[in-house]
């Protein structure tokens, strides 16, 4: 009746019980809070059924913050365990729990923090930057979000019911095959990632069409803001890479559920095929994560240098080069799998080629500051830290791209230090910068800058203390994913240092978390009185009020150069007639949520082999989709008079 | 033809005279069809991954039968013709919809449906036969990749048939409107795409397997 | 100085600079402190030496990019800060041909140089390439099990678990497979690793230049007991090696097809064992075996 789900699934190792209890209690408190403040109707109408990308972007970020808390808690537990578990001591976590933790940590951070960050930013910023009122497919955009949230929910459920995968964030077979991982863990992983991956593909398609088809008049490709360019390249990568992930996960699923032989050594299968396929997705994935962040910095640095971006065309070509090259390097993730020196050196050389356009971008940003007037607001501090950290991490990437060096450091803590430098020093610092920069646009007030600064220094120092020593640990022969080691290795003092570094980062994260609520509390003190352009910026999102009206632009702007807001401020913008028109917007719909819910149930049912429930929920998805297809396209209309009223109410005095 | 343009403009908010610059008032028709093309590219990559997997495993028979022993080109030829004519019927349905001939549209859609369903039936028969002979997907990597590649195509066709059925009802109830025309166009893209994938399967799996 | 420190920008750059210098200083300090525990920087085998040297060369080349980037970051932040009245302000300075030529061109040249290095060194340091030496190579067959390492000496007709011994300055030819999920065979003091995969054979060629006990481990997660999969690789004199082989041949334990199956059952933190090898073709059999999947 319930497949292989028994009451045993609800009992966990002692070290997990606290986390499960905490999660359940926090979830319950949240539900109580919403009920007590009578906000259910508001939540439903304004957020859950929305198809407004501005709202969807905020929802992505909310999910990111929740998943980040979990992923960071995982990291802290790992560091603590590695500090304690040396020699005769076995720490406080069992080996199998530890392996669940690092698998969950990687999966959460890549899929539910990294992807959430970029989709959050894309939803919030892209329509505004291209002068559009909406995205190309508002419903599909919402659906993409709900599938993302569904995958995240499945990983959280796995903490409370059953176990998560112990095979790492990429689940290589044969370890992830049914023979060596017969339990539910890998299945949870497969369905969470598969569902979220499909959501990413849908969102990627939506943003590609949005950028290509919905730019305002006059905005040719070479006049788009660089953030939009970087997102265009990222969604091209998404479209061409995520289907490979979907297919590969299907193959692993078939191996596990239907006794197929793609990756089993029995039956003439080959696990190396999985490694190739998963990294054919996996390498573009890391560029998907970083390219929008490059775009974020390309917006922040010119604004806070009061100067145009240096070398726009160069930057665009660098983005395109990185996009193309990212498909040609995937083998560098497994140089040690025994390929011939011809193959290994080819991919090694392709890998270092990427250093050229990346380096070009760094120089272009630095020279944007050259002869500018640089303001060290916290976004600029994050940029500063990014340059220092990302460059070093990139350099270690070049070291890794030489196969003979990689033969030594592959899968050691040297590798861990490298990629954390890229994702923390790059993606996360960029996200913090972008979050602080665009926060006033969507709320109308600033984050408390002092708390921003404290958080920044904690992160900057904490990151260095927590990750720089890992390079040395790698050189000392320490591999990744170790839950215990002998005292004779001499590694213990360094594990102590990096555990301390993680605590410093924790301070930074806590300051940010409480800082967000504090800033909301004292928002009247930090109100943005500039009418929507507090930073004296150059792109279109700053030309409308903060927070933006639901329709974004009352009158679609026409542009004829880059940095269109600067053009307006200098009086060089093309004159558009101030004629208000009726604005049609798509109506809210709960169907995205319903499909997401059915998807969660489907993933859960498949994991636990409750096949009748799986069939039922799959039918639910299909039925809901058919219902959606049977509805007529409905729009709500804001009449021209209403628009005019809303605009004058906002006291806009900038002609557009 | 002036008729199709009328259909498009029912969707647009405002006819913009200057089409040389990107326009937020783009008609929904072109945005939707373009978006569906992009989706088809992702589906193409999905199939490409399965093709690559088949290519790598096509000779990993684990001591079991090889393609030559298993495939019957006659059946495959019939399947190909059936699917091809289903595509033709779909094309004729679209042409009729341009002329706003609702009955003809539904008839051609029904023909396409029947032919498509026959394709799925023949394929299921082939699969059942293989399984009964002990050559199911559990036997070897070659058979796993065969069933997955061809089965995924068959699954896409089945979903397409469900979509086609829903479309027939919609055309019946709503007639040929901008909305149903747009959906018919998108469906026919899907249907022709599946026919194209079948050509590749026919060539690289069945024909080359017999060599 | 104190006055400058009062300007937030200078203070920030100063503190950041201190932090960077601190991190930099930690490198030589930790090398001094941990010394030969840093096995990759102080390797004991010529393959590992060549791999380390390649690392250092590429690192040095990269410094030609990193150091200017760091200097520019600090200098530009200070000179063009809005609080510094001395910087010139040129808001439309967006292009400079010379600058673009330099930062596209120089990295290209550097990449060209490093590419040549990668090409040649990857071929030279191919794990499959036998090592040139006056001494006859020793073949050791390696089987990654759950969760220990089985070593088979086909010519000496002995086997061991979690321990190997060999003479110094003798080429070691490893043939590696697994009867377990993917593992990675790694002795960092002697050289880089290579994956150990079921039903597949990889090869690794290493040599020890000095005597010592070197730690080896698995570098790819293979299940619950993964962290216990470390072993000792002992390099000693020729006489000591023969003494060890002789004593292993007299071991009461025998390794054949049957005892192998008992050994291959999952176990963690195995002690060192030595065996007489009764089955010469054990490794090939392990390589070719077809195990149907274990039922749940």
What does this structure look like?
- The complex is a heterotrimer of chains A (about 650), B (about 210) and C (about 300).
- Chain A has about 650 residues and is an all-alpha fold.
- Chain A contains 20 helices and 2 strands.
- The C terminus of chain A is likely disordered.
- The N terminus of chain B is likely disordered.
- Chain B has a single domain, classed as Four Helix Bundle (Hemerythrin (Met), subunit A) (Up-down Bundle), CATH 1.20.120.80.
- With about 300 residues, chain C is an alpha+beta fold.
- Helices cover about 40% and strands about 20% of the residues of chain C.
- Chain C has 7 helices and 12 strands.
- In chain C, strands 8-5-1-2-3-12-11 form a 7-stranded mixed sheet.
- In chain C, α6 links the parallel β11 and β12.
- In chain C, α3 packs antiparallel against α4.
- Chain C is elongated.
- Chain C starts with a helix and ends in an 8-residue tail after the last helix.
- The mean pLDDT of chain C is about 90.
- At the A-C interface, α4, α8, α10, α11 and α12 of A face α2, α3, α4, β7 and β9 of C.
Which percent range describes the beta-strand content of chain A? under 5%
Strand order of the largest sheet of chain C: 8-5-1-2-3-12-11
Note the total helix count of chain C: 7
Mean pLDDT of chain C: 92
How many β-strand stretches of chain C? 12
- Name the chain pair with the biggest interface and residue counts per chain: A-C, 102 and 103 residues
Distance between the termini of chain C: 72 Å
- Mind summarizing the main beta sheet of chain A? 2 strands, antiparallel
Strand order of the largest sheet of chain A: 1-2
Query: What is the number of E strands of chain A?
Result: 2
**In angstroms, what is the radius of gyration of chain A?**
25 Å
User: Low-confidence stretches of chain C at least 5 residues in length (pLDDT < 50)?
Assistant: none
The arrangement of helices and strands of chain C along the chain is: HHHHEEEEEEEEEEHEHEH
Strand content of chain C: 15-25%
**Distance between termini of chain A?**
64 Å
**Percent in helix of chain A:** 55-70%
Query: What's the pLDDT, averaged over the residues of chain A?
Result: 94
Molecular shape of chain A: globular
SSE layout and pairing:
The complex is a heterotrimer of chains A (656), B (211) and C (296).
Chain A: H1 14-36, H2 40-48, H3 53-84, H4 95-129, H5 138-160, H6 185-213, H7 226-258, H8 271-305, H9 312-325, H10 341-353, H11 355-369, H12 378-400, H13 403-409, H14 413-443, H15 449-475, H16 492-521, H17 564-569, E1 583-586, H18 591-607, H19 611-630, E2 635-638, H20 640-649
Antiparallel strand pairs in A: 1-2
Helix pairs in contact in A: 3-4, 3-5, 3-16, 4-5, 4-6, 4-8, 4-14, 5-6, 5-18, 6-7, 6-18, 7-8, 7-9, 8-11, 8-14, 9-11, 12-14, 12-15, 14-15, 15-16, 18-19
Chain B: H1 2-9, H2 28-57, H3 67-70, H4 73-98, H5 102-132, H6 141-174, H7 178-210
Chain C: H1 2-6, H2 8-34, H3 46-79, H4 97-124, E1 138-144, E2 149-153, E3 158-161, E4 163-167, E5 172-178, E6 183-187, E7 191-196, E8 202-206, E9 212-218, E10 230-236, H5 238-249, E11 254-255, H6 257-264, E12 273-277, H7 282-288
Helix pairs in contact in C: 3-4
């Amino acid at each position: 009746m319930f497949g292989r789900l028994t009451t045993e699934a609800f009992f966990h190792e002692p070290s997990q019980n606290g986390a499960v209890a905490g999660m359940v209690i926090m979830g319950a408190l949240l539900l109580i809070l919403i009920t007590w403040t009578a906000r259910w109707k508001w939540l439903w109408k304004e957020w859950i059924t929305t198809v407004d990308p501005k709202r969807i972007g905020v929802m992505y970020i909310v999910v990111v913050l929740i998943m980040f808390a979990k992923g960071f808690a995982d990291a802290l537990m790992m560091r603590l365990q590695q500090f304690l578990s040396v020699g005769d001591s076995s720490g406080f976590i069992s080996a199998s729990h530890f392996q669940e933790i690092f698998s969950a940590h990687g999966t959460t951070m890549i899929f539910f923090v990294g992807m959430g960050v970029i989709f959050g930013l894309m939803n919030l910023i892209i329509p505004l930057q291209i002068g559009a009122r909406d995205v190309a497919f508002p419903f599909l955009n919402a659906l993409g979000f709900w599938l993302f949230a569904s995958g995240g929910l499945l990983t959280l459920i796995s903490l409370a019911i059953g176990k998560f995968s112990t095979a790492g964030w990429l689940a290589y077979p044969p370890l992830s095959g049914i023979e060596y991982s017969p339990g539910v863990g890998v299945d949870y992983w497969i369905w969470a990632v598969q569902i979220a991956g499909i959501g990413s593909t849908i969102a990627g398609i939506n943003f590609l069409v949005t950028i290509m088809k919905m730019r305002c008049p006059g905005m040719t490709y070479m006049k788009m803001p660089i953030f939009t360019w970087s997102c265009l390249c990222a969604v091209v990568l998404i479209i061409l890479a995520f289907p490979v992930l979907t297919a590969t996960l299907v193959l692993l699923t078939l191996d596990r559920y239907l006794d197929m032989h793609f990756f089993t050594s029995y039956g003439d299968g080959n696990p190396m095929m999985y490694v190739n396929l998963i990294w054919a997705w996996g390498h573009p994935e890391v560029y998907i994560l970083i390219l929008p962040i490059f775009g974020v910095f390309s917006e922040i640095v010119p604004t806070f240098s009061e100067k145009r971006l240096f070398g726009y065309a160069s930057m665009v070509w660098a983005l395109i080069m990185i996009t193309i090259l990212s498909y040609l390097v995937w083998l560098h993730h497994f140089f040690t799998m025994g390929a011939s020196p011809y193959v290994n050196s080819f991919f090694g050389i392709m890998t270092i080629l990427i250093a050229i356009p990346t380096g070009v971008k760094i120089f272009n940003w630095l020279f944007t500051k050259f002869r500018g007037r640089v303001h060290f607001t916290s976004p600029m501090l994050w940029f500063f830290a990014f340059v220092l950290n990302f460059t070093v991490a990139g350099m270690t990437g070049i070291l890794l791209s030489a196969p003979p060096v990689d033969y030594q450091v592959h899968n050691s803590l040297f590798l861990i230090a490298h990629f954390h430098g890229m994702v923390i020093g790059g993606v996360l610092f960029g996200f913090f910068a972008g979050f602080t920069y665009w926060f006033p646009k969507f709320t109308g007030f600033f984050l408390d800058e002092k708390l921003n600064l404290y958080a920044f220094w904690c992160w900057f120092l904490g990151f260095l203390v927590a990750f720089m020593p890992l390079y040395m640990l790698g050189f000392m022969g320490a591999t990744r994913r170790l839950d215990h080691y002998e005292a004779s290795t001499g590694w213990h003092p360094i594990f102590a240092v990096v555990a301390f570094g993680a605590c410093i980062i924790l301070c930074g994260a806590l300051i940010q978390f409480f800082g967000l609520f504090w800033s909301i509390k004292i928002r009247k003190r930090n109100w943005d009185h500039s009418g929507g352009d507090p930073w004296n910026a150059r792109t279109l999102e700053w030309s409308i009020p903060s927070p933006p009206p639901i329709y974004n632009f009352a009158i679609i702007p026409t542009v004829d150069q880059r940095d269109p807001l600067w053009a307006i401020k200098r009086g060089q913008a093309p004159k558009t007639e101030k004629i208000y028109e009726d604005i049609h917007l798509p109506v809210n719909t709960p169907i995205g949520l319903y499909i997401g819910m059915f998807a969660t149930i489907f993933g859960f049912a498949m994991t636990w082999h409750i096949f009748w429930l799986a069939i039922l929920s799959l039918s639910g998805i299909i039925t809901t989709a058919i219902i959606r297809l049977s509805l007529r396209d409905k729009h709500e209309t804001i009449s021209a008079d209403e628009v005019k009223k809303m605009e004058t109410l906002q006291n806009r005095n900038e002609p557009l | 033809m002036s008729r199709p343009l009328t259909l498009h403009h029912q969707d647009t908010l405002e006819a913009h005279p200057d089409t040389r610059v990107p326009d937020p008032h783009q008609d929904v028709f072109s945005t939707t069809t373009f978006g569906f093309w992009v989706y088809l590219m992702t589906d193409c990559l999905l199939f490409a991954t399965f093709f690559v997997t088949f290519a790598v495993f096509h000779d990993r028979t684990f001591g079991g039968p090889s393609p030559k022993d298993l495939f019957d080109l006659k059946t495959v030829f019939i399947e190909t013709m059936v699917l091809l004519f289903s595509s033709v019927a779909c094309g004729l349905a679209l042409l009729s919809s341009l002329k706003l001939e609702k009955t003809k549209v539904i008839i051609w859609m029904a023909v396409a449906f029947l032919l498509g369903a026959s394709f799925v039936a023949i394929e299921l028969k082939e699969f059942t036969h293989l399984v009964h002979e002990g050559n199911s997907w559990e036997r070897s990597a070659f058979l796993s990749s065969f069933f997955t590649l061809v089965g995924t195509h068959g699954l896409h066709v089945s979903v397409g048939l469900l979509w086609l059925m829903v479309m027939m009802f919609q055309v019946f109830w709503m007639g040929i409107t901008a909305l149903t025309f747009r959906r018919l166009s998108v469906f026919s893209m899907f249907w022709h795409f599946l026919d194209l994938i079948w050509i590749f399967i026919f060539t690289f799996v069945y024909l080359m397997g017999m060599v | 100085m104190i006055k400058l420190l009062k300007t937030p920008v200078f203070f920030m750059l100063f503190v950041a600079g201190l932090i960077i210098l601190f991190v930099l200083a930690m490198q030589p300090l930790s090398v001094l402190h941990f010394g030969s525990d840093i096995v990759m920087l102080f390797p004991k085998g010529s393959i590992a030496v060549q791999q380390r040297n390649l690392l250092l060369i590429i690192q040095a080349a990269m410094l030609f990019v990193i150091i200017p980037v760091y200097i520019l970051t600090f200098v530009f932040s200070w000179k063009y800060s809005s609080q510094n009245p001395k910087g010139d302000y040129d808001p439309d300075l967006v292009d400079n041909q010379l600058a673009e030529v330099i930062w596209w061109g120089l990295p290209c040249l550097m990449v060209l140089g490093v590419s040549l290095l990668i090409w040649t060194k990857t071929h030279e340091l191919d794990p499959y390439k036998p090592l040139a030496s006056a001494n006859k190579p020793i073949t050791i067959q390696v089987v990654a099990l759950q969760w220990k390492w089985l070593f088979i000496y086909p010519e000496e007709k002995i086997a061991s678990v979690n321990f190997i011994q060999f003479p110094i300055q003798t080429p070691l030819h490893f043939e590696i497979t697994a009867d377990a999920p993917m593992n990675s065979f790694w002795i960092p003091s002697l050289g880089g690793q290579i994956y150990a995969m079921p039903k597949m054979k990889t090869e690794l060629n290493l040599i020890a230049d000095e005597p010592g006990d070197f730690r080896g481990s698995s570098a790819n997660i293979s299940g619950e007991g993964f962290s216990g999969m470390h072993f000792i690789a002992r390099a000693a004199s020729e006489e000591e090696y023969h003494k060890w082989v002789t004593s292993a041949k007299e071991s009461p334990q025998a390794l054949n097809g049957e005892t192998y199956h008992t050994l291959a059952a999952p176990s963690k933190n195995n002690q060192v064992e030595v065996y007489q090898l009764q089955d010469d073709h054990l490794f090939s059999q392990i390589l070719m075996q077809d195990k149907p999947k274990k039922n749940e």
